[in-house]
Structure formats: C-alpha cells, structure tokens
UniProtKB/TrEMBL annotation:
Its cofactor is FMN; Mg(2+). One of its GO terms (molecular function) is phosphopantothenate--cysteine ligase activity. CTP binds at residues 103, 113, 148, 162, 166. The chain holds residues 176 to 398 of 398 of the full protein. This is Coenzyme A biosynthesis bifunctional protein CoaBC. In the C-terminal section; belongs to the PPC synthetase family. In the N-terminal section; belongs to the HFCD (homo-oligomeric flavin containing Cys decarboxylase) superfamily. It comes from Sellimonas caecigallum.
Length: 223
C-alpha cells in the first residue's frame, strides 16, 4: 500500500496531522464533544504517507481505523492533544491541524456521577489552550503550518482573521451550511486560503481534497 499509486514527492518530509474531536469530561459518565469523525485528518495522514512522508497522527477518539505506516497517538482531551502536539511539533516540517478541538471544557470535573435534581443545570466552563496559536507563536524557520476553519457565516473573512492571528501559512475553510461539506459524510467543499490567494475547490471526496490541499502545501513550500 505504501508503495503504490502515488509519486513519492513527500519523501523525507516529516508531517504532523491532528484529527478528530476532543472529549471534555463532565463526570465519569459524560463529556462534551463535537461532530468531528476524523475522516478529513485521516485522509490527509494517509495521502501524506502514500506520498512518502514520515507521518505522525495525533488523534481524538474516532470510529475509523488508524492509517497504516503512520505513528498514531490517541488522545481524549484538548489538554492531552496540546501536550502530544508540543512534544512532536519541533521536529516537523509540515503541521496540519484538522482536529476539532474543544474551545471550552468544564471547569470542574466531578469525581462522582452528577445526580439529577429539580430545575435546570448549568456547568461552568473554562477556555482550553489554543494549540494552533501556540504552534504559530513557536513556529520554527521553514516549518509550514496549516489550520482548518469551520464556519457557518462570513467564512472567508473569519478564516483570514484566524490565518493572521495564529501566524499560519495556510487555512482550509469549510462552510458547514454548504451541502457536502464539513463533518458528516465522505465529501468536503473547501476553500484553501493563503496570504495572497484563495482557491475554492468543488465538492469532492475527502481523499481527493487531501491530495489537492497537499499539492498546494508543496507548491507554497517551493516558492
Ligand atoms: N484549534 C486549536 N486549538 C483550539 C481550538 C482550535 O488548535 N483550542 C485549531 C483547530 O484545530 C483548527 C483551527 O484552530 O485548525 C481553527 O479552529 P476553529 O474552531 O475553526 O476556530 P477557532 O479559532 O477555535 O475560533 P471559533 O471556534 O470561535 O470560530
Ligand atoms: Ca473553535
């Protein structure tokens, strides 16, 4: 599998991909998460591997099998993802953050199951670390940093803001409201945004989108 189908145009490159959701515990029974399936990130990791790269995949819990010939590290929380990524980042040439990281986690985790009572329940939440922002702030010379952006409105404008704020080289934006885009399903509709360009791809399989995203990353690296 590693040998067929793709030209080895990523041979010698070290690539870190993050994928999947994070899970933030409320108590021993419950957690807060999102709809990420990991498919886009796993497609990216698989295509990188087939193109000859040395791939590390830091992944939240998913239902899909881990790609072969990839160093996979499974994490659950945003905190665990942050620690794993911090460890792995310095030796990477390309980092692609496809994971859907929780922005907030419950401030207190109950050691016992929370029992229901009369009336409403509110859970105090605190911010998680912005892993991508950390990577942008600590980017080493020559390292290429690609984020993802999930929006339901003002996609380009909001994504450009993230590109700048997090010191990214590229951000891949998708609009959850477009048919065939986002979390559900095997397809995606993405716009690849760099400092001086915006390229909108039509609806395609997540694997094909991964190929196109990586083509663009390699093109940027050669500039
Ligand atoms: N990200 C991250 N750590 C976080 C939150 C997000 O590394 N705590 C990364 C995601 O992996 C993604 C990018 O930041 O590559 C953008 O995520 P997104 O949720 O679209 O944007 P946010 O910056 O979190 O802003 P908001 O959710 O408010 O739109
Ligand atoms: Ca977010």
């Amino acid at each position: 599998l590693r040998e067929i189908q793709f030209e080895k145009d990523m041979a010698g490159k070290r690539v870190l991909v993050t994928a999947g959701p994070t899970q933030e515990a409320i108590d021993p029974v419950r957690y807060i998460t999102n709809h990420s399936t990991g498919k886009m990130g796993y497609a990216l990791a698989t295509v990188c591997m087939r193109r000859g790269a040395d791939v590390t995949l830091v992944t939240g819990p998913t239902a899909i099998p881990k790609p072969e010939f990839v160093k996979a590290i499974t994490v659950h929380t945003a905190k665990e993802m942050f620690e794993a990524v911090k460890d792995e980042a310095p030796r990477q040439d390309i980092i692609i953050k496809a994971a859907a990281v929780a922005d907030y986690r419950p401030k207190y985790v109950s050691h016992e199951k929370v029992k229901k009572k009369e009336g409403d329940l509110s859970i105090p939440m605190e911010r998680t670390d912005d892993i991508l922002k950390y990577l942008g702030d600590n980017k080493r010379e020559g390292q290429f940093l690609c984020g993802f952006s999930m929006e339901t409105e003002n996609m380009i404008e909001n994504s450009r803001r993230k590109l700048e704020k997090k010191n990214l080289d590229m951000i891949v934006a998708n609009n959850l409201k477009v048919e065939g885009a986002g979390f559900a399903g095997d397809t995606n509709v993405v716009t690849i945004i760099t400092k001086d360009e915006e390229v909108s791809l039509e609806k395609m399989s997540k694997e094909e989108a991964a190929v196109q995203i990586l083509d663009r990353i390699l093109m940027c690296g050669q500039k």
